Amino acid sequence: MGENKITGLKTLDYHVLLQRLLLVVIRPYLQSDVVDTLVALSKFFLRICAKELKKSDVRSLQEDIVYIMCKLKMIFPSTFFDIMIHLLIHLPEQVLLTGPIQYTWCYPNEKYALIL
Q: Which secondary structure element, helix H or strand E, spans residue 114, and what is its range?
C-alpha cells in the first residue's frame, strides 16, 4: 500500500481543506488546545473570505489574528514561522485597503492557466 498523501491539489483545494475539512479531521487526533487554535485559525479564514465585511468586523479580525498567532507560537516550533505565516497579520489590513478578498484572489488566473 502506498503512502497516504494528498497530491495534485490547486490553491483553491487547499483553501477548502483549511476552512472546511480540517476542522472535522483533526479533532480526534490532537490535544484540545491545539484543536482550538487551529479551529480559530480556520474561522479567521472563513470570516475574512466572506463576501460582505464590515470595517468593525475586519478590525476585530486584526485583534483576533494576533491572539491566534500567539497561541500558534506556543504550540509549534519557531522554525514553523516563516514570512508566509507572518503575512497572516497583514491580511485584515489588506482587506481594509482593497475590499473583499475574492477580488484579489488568483484562483481565476490559476484556472485560466490550465486552458492555455
A: helix 107-115
d(CA 98, CA 93): 9
Q: What's the rounded Cα separation, in Å, for the pair 44 and 66? A: 11
How far does the chain reach from its first CA to its final CA, in angstroms?
A: 36
pLDDT, tens digit (0-9, with 9 covering 90-100), for 6-45: 777 776 777 778 777 777 888 888 899 999 998 999 899 8
Task: Compute CA 103 distance to the chain's CA centroid, rounded to the nearest angstrom.
Answer: 17
The tally of CA atoms less than 13 A away on the side-chain side of residue 75 is: 15
The phi, psi pair for 26, rounded to 5°, reads -80, -20
Q: Model-level pTM?
A: 0.76
CB-based contact 75:39 (threshold 8 Å):
no
9 SS3 class:
coil
Residues 6+ positions from 47 with CB-CB distance below 8 Å: 57, 61
